[in-house]
Amino acid sequence: MIYLDNAATTYPKPRAVLAKMHEVMAKTGGNPGRGSHRLASAAAQIVYECREEAAGLFGGEPENVVFTMNATQSLNLAVKGLARPGGHILIDSFAHNAAYRPVMALVRSGVCTADVYDASGDDGEVLDSIRSLLRPETCLVIATHQSNICSKILPIEKIGQFCRSLGIPFAVDGSQSAGHLPIDIGSMGITSLCLPGHKGLFGPMGVGLLISSGDAEYATILEGGAGIHSLEEEMPAMLPERLEPGTLPLPAIAGLCEGIRWVKNTGISSAHEHGCMLSGVLRERLPGLRTHGDPTGCVISFTSDTRTPAEIGAYLNAHGIFVRTGYHCAPLAHKSLGTLQDGTVRISFSPMTTVGDVIRFADILSVIL
Questions:
Q1: Are residues 190 and 54 in contact, defined by beta-carbon separation less than 8 angstroms?
Q2: Which residues does 61 contact at the CB level (< 8 Å), separation at least 6?
Q3: 0.90 cut: is pTM over it?
Q4: Distance from C-alpha of 362 to C-alpha of 281, rounded to nearest angstrom
Q5: pLDDT (tens digit, 9 = 90+) per residue, 105-146?
């Protein structure tokens, strides 16, 4: 088996992640923040340790680390929590539906208007596109740090500093970049960093992160018990409790904490560098491969004149090679790349992917092509 679908979720996970989740399920039966007895306190300590690890990796404060179900929920909280009635939103042309659909829901309901800025050019062209679409009522700018279709990286530090100079909140989808590229919400001017736990951070499915700069007020889209201020009718005003109604996924959080530690020990840029090396091996092995967008990192999309993406994916699956085909939940990106007709075949590497994996993949792919 060769697994090349790490942009969807990384596999396999580090052994420490699996061991910690099993330990917590077996030995920690308390509900974090929902009691003062020993087991509840132990559960709360596990949650806080993960907040500390995430804050340390991304330049935030532990109290501003909010746990969610996934990056999609984080993006919904950021978009709907930061948007204001009558406001205007700018979103990039590589955006995933996890960001694009919440924006369009606000547009359809008449809460906001929105425009898509062109993120396909160089850094200066991206900023020029944002400037050309700004309005006095612009209330939020959204950027995909790294595309899930190819390895295109947006200049989030430059965008964030520009937004900060104008006092405009800036939300970043770090689904593909977290664990691969350095991110610091303070120096990069990020208001809300939205992340999955199960991709480059090597945690399990079922937990995501919203890391706030701490200087923004969020409207809530979910309400419920927060473990504090139980006699009040509204959610608490402070983070993280304001955006964390209900019981947290303790085993998943414990696994994510170990995943973040594994990433820190491995080196924050090693995954990206490894992916760049592997993509170079692939280009040498298949120099005529028709790629779309930036093919020099961990995520590569390609198409063929003779086979559809679905046919290629089925052929590879029959040979024990697992990729993703189609549109990858990112129609704006496919429109930018000119691949809306059938989508693409997407391969995505992780630190677990070997040179041998890539060579075998290239040799088998060459047969059907």
A1: no
A2: 55, 214
A3: yes
A4: 9
A5: 999 999 999 999 999 999 999 999 999 999 999 999 999 999
Report d(CA 186, CA 165) in Å as an integer.
13
Residue 36: pLDDT over 90: no
CATH number of 15-265: 3.40.640.10
Q: What pairing do the DSSP bridges indicate for beta strands 87-92 and 138-144?
A: parallel
Is the distance from CB of 232 to CB of 91 less than 8 angstroms? no
Would residue 92 be called left, alpha or beta, if left means φ above 0 and alpha means ψ between -120 and 50 degrees?
A: beta
Instruction: List Cβ neighbours of 355 (8 Å cut-off, separation of 6 or more).
Output: 277, 278, 281
Residues in a beta bridge with 92: 117
The pLDDT of residue 88 is 98
Model confidence band, residue 159 (pLDDT cutoffs 50, 70, 90): very high
Residues 6+ apart with CB under 8 A from 184: 58, 59
22: Cβ–Cβ under 8 A, 6 or more apart, which residues? none
Which token pair is 31?
């509900």
30: left (phi over 0), alpha (psi -120 to 50) or beta: beta
Q: What ranges do the domains of the chain cover?
A: 2-11+268-368, 15-265
DSSP 322: E
Q: Identify whether the C-beta of residue 32 lies closer than 8 Å to the C-beta of residue 44.
A: yes
User: CA-CA distances (angstroms) from residue 360 to 45, 64, 150, 321?
Assistant: 45, 44, 21, 9
- As given in the structure block, the two tokens for residue 111 are 């809460």
CA distance 92 to 105: 16
Q: Which CATH number fits domain 2-11+268-368: 3.30.420.10, 3.40.50.720, 3.90.1150.10, 3.40.1190.10?
A: 3.90.1150.10
pLDDT band at 241 (very low <50, low <70, confident <90, very high): very high
Q: Is 85 left (phi over 0), alpha (psi -120 to 50) or beta?
A: beta
253-287: pLDDT as tens digits: 999 999 999 999 999 989 999 999 999 999 999 99
Check: CB of residue 75 under 8 Å from CB of residue 208. Answer: no
